[in-house]
Amino acid sequence: MEIKTKTWGKTPDGKDIKLYTMTNGNGISVQLCDIGAGIVSIMTPDRDGHMDDIVLGYPDPLSYYGDGPCAGKVPGRFANRIANGKFKIDDVEYQLDLNTSDGKHHLHGGPIGFANQKWASRIEGESVVFTYLSADGEAGYPGEMVAKVRYTLNDEDELNIRLGAWTTATTVVNMTNHTYFNLKGEGHGDILDHILKLNASRWLPATDELITTGEIAPVEDTPMDFTQGKLIGRDIREPFDALVNGKGYDSCWVLDDLGKDKLNLAAELWHEGSGRKVQLYTTQPGIQVYTGNWLSGCPQGKNGHVYHDYEGVALECQALPDSPNKPNFPNTFLRPGDEYKEIIIFKFLTI
């Protein structure tokens, strides 16, 4: 296992931006950046051994500040949406910063969320570790919170992501990774010809503003059924409310067979043409699937590529959206003395 580091650029206030490159014994490499503790690049072979970068990203590190797609980064404190930016803890209501396109809701931690911050970073053994200190009241959240993300690449071709957090006062937390995959190689067309399989027989209906209603519905006989694996593009244009409102897939599925702290296979994504496949394992209860429906207009991509809608799919293992306002969803409160800890694993294969 080899880890190299270099200075990639400067933040607006003159601090060094670091780029880490992890390479395993099989030649798979992962690049990480301390803006948003994010994944910049993943190089994997196709079935013929040809290496390609299979994730979307930018050549300019400053493009990772405030980008709409949140490419590769770790959003927080609370990924996904909180309705009207409001929730209660022990009958005290908190108002978070609002930043959805309609200005009504709180998305991915708000405009100054974790994804738009420079994290402290270091090499620790065969891992790269990022930490961020979120101040009490930042974006409206109570309590000072320390967030930690550890990336480890092994010779089983697995990228292990461990998410951790601690707080000084009761707060809410939901962290994930927002990498966009294109198994043909970034900038090489859309992902509608990728096959997706989800270990999820239920999904979360939402309003036309993409706020979960609290209902947990079966996927059977709907375009939301990926239990057997199907082309992402097969049903994406169906006149189904979730697909119309999101301009494609932008919904959360409830994973099956999850026990406390149990690591489960959540999803499999593969592309027949290239032979590349990614398996996702997680301890999280849900997975948000976003098919890059609004990628057009984002910062210029790597290798001179301009990204268009549907050119990447984000598979975000996470807590269920708007959980603080949905008593029937798994608890997302973090109290002093407790530790938030979740795992996401990307396993790279060829078929």
Q: What is this structure's SSE topology?
A:
Elements: E1 2-10, E2 16-23, E3 29-33, E4 38-45, E5 51-53, E6 81-82, E7 86-89, E8 92-95, E9 106-107, E10 120-124, E11 127-134, E12 145-153, E13 158-167, E14 171-172, E15 180-181, E16 195-198, E17 202-203, E18 217-218, E19 230-231, H1 241-246, E20 250-254, E21 264-270, E22 276-282, E23 286-290, E24 313-318, E25 333-334, E26 340-350
Antiparallel strand pairs: 1-2, 2-3, 3-4, 4-5, 6-9, 7-8, 10-11, 11-12, 12-13, 13-26, 14-25, 15-24, 16-19, 16-21, 17-18, 17-20, 20-23, 21-22, 22-26, 23-24
Question: What do these coordinates show?
Answer:
The protein is an all-beta fold and 351 residues long. Strand 12 and strand 13 form a beta hairpin. The protein starts with a strand and ends with a strand. It has a 9-stranded antiparallel β-sheet with strand order 10-11-12-13-26-22-21-16-19, with no helix packed on it. Strands 15-24-23-20-17-18 form a 6-stranded antiparallel β-sheet. Strands 1-2-3-4-5 form a 5-stranded antiparallel β-sheet, with no helix packed on it. The chain has a single domain, classed as Distorted Sandwich (Beta-galactosidase, Chain A, domain 5), CATH 2.70.98. 2% of the residues lie in helices and 38% in strands. The chain is globular. The chain is built from 1 helix and 26 strands.
